[in-house]
Amino acid sequence: MSKLSKYILPVGLVFCLAISLFFFNTCSLESVQSDKLKVGATYMTLNKPYFQVINNEVEKEIRENGDILYTKDPALDADKQAEQIQNFIDMGVDVIIVNPIDSFAIEENLLRAKEEGIKIIVIDTPLENENIADCTVTSNNYQAGVLCALDMMEKIEKARIVLLEHNSVISGRDRIQGFCDTIANNPNYVIVKELECLGQTVPALNAMRDYLSRSDDFQVVMCLNDTAALGVLAALEEQNKEDVLVYGVDGAPEIKALIAQSNVMEGSASQSPIQMGKKAIYAAYRLTKDVEIGKEIFIGTELITKDNISKFSISGWQ
After folding, report:
1. Rounded CA gap, 195 and 190, in Å?
2. % helix / strand / coil in the chain, to the nearest 5?
3. Which of 145, 159, 292, 310 could make an S-S bridge to 175, C-beta 3.0–4.6 Å?
4. How far apart are CA 98 and CA 201, in angstroms?
5. pLDDT higher than threshold 80 for residue 121
6. C-alpha triplet 178, 180, 184: angle, nearest 5°
7. What values do phi and psi take at 249, rounded to 5?
8. Vertex 225, ends 233 and 174: CA angle to 5°?
9. Checking DSSP bridges between strand 267-270 and strand 296-299, what pairing results, if any?
């Protein structure tokens, strides 16, 4: 045996052993990974605490089951959200949880996901094409608008009303529609202006500020959500305009604090992002096990005012 043989042989054995272990571990890892449920979640924006709370509930259940969650933030960019959905498809996820920015912009990608056998769970706002979703989890958005209108009508006999809208999102349209339908047959209530704000605070602030520079002849502002209401309240405060009833939808902690501690916010129709997140991941696990669930899961709303604020936690979401 040559002098090198005593080194080459052991090294060869070690190399073969290393290769064997590599393939064993890789196969084992792939086996373990394939056993895990993989969920991709994309929301309108994670800049809004409401969606952070939803995702926290999803993540909590995923973690407890030892599964995998990929969370993406398209930052209100519909094209970016479409790309994220395609990325989920390429990653081989089992479920996509989506809060659509624009139904039409992501429809093609969601249909492609369905063709791959991926379950689609839509949350907070439905898709235009409802057949795409395996399950849609939403608040009763129309009812939220109705509740705001009924409260307003109890408190003020007539009003000129400004609407803060987000027209590309069905949930926002439904809330405003519920409000408008409730006052439709009463001539004492007149919509004087509709302002687009994307459901965001700064655009709402700017839109309300601009309108106030031209007219302050209104008594009520109906906002599609509490995020927009915060912008409206800031604009009204700048002009020292205090004689306005402001309504929103969400029941956000900061809005509940304003309802409890001041007179600047009249009411907010509550949503429960905690329940929405729980219902979404509940649906995910059952759908992937071929357990039948309803195509729609509705979460009820309740109007939060000074009269019942004591029932709610001010520091957190419901």
Report:
1. 15
2. 50, 20, 30
3. 145
4. 22
5. yes
6. 120
7. -135, 130
8. 140
9. unpaired
DSSP state of 92: T
Structure tokens at 143: 């009812």
The average pLDDT across 297-303 equals 94
The beta-carbon contacts of 313-317 under 8 Å, at least 24 apart in sequence, are 313/253, 313/256, 314/253, 314/256, 314/257, 314/260, 315/253, 316/253, 317/49, 317/50, 317/53, 317/251, 317/252, 317/253, 317/272, 317/273, 317/274
By the 8 A CB rule, do 121 and 288 touch? no
Contact partners, residue 100, CB within 8 Å, separation at least 6: 44, 81, 106, 122, 125, 127, 169
- Take residue 265 and report the two structure tokens written for it: 């916010």
Phi, psi of 241 (to 5 degrees): -95, 105
pLDDT in tens, 3-41: 323 323 343 433 333 334 333 333 333 334 568 999 999
- The pair of three-digit structure tokens given for residue 278, joined into one six-digit string: 């729980």
